[in-house]
Design a protein that fits this description.
Blueprint (H helix, E strand, L loop, with lengths): L1 H29 L7 H26 L8
């Protein structure tokens, strides 16, 4: 279990660093007043896009009749 916990922590840590870097870059470009909100905004955008992707993928798989080969 420790390996999975470390991998999960590394993934979350990497994502947090990327969010921070993107937030700093955008705030420098568009105004520092936006900085406190940007990590939350970016995370919400990623969650929404990811949710939509997986929902569409699942819908595609479930809508295909059994025995139908994938393209």
């Amino acid at each position: 279990h420790r390996v999975w916990a470390r991998l999960w922590a590394a993934a979350l840590g990497s994502y947090a660093v990327a969010l921070g870097a993107a937030s700093l870059w955008a705030a420098r470009r568009d105004g520092w007043a936006h900085l406190p909100r940007l990590p939350v905004v970016f995370a919400c955008i990623h969650f929404a896009w990811g949710s939509g992707f997986w929902a569409a993928a699942l819908q595609t798989v479930l809508a295909r009749p059994r025995g139908t080969p994938s393209r």
